Amino acid sequence: MTTTPTPSPRPEPEPAFLSLHTAVVLLGALFAGFVAGELSYLGGVSVPLAVLAGLGAAGSAVPGLRELIR
Hints:
- The protein is mostly helical.
- Helix content is 66%, strand content 0%.
């Protein structure tokens, strides 16, 4: 007598690449950096310096947003 294998339950889905918390923090930091860079540029700063201002603002916004959202 042959036995038929019982069907296994659904396979577990793969974990997400980024958690929702991480995605929200990074999007908020990206927005803050864009706003800071744009305001710097509109204030008369050259484009490379405005980009550096935006990157600095985005980098410094990550810890604050992380604690704020927790």
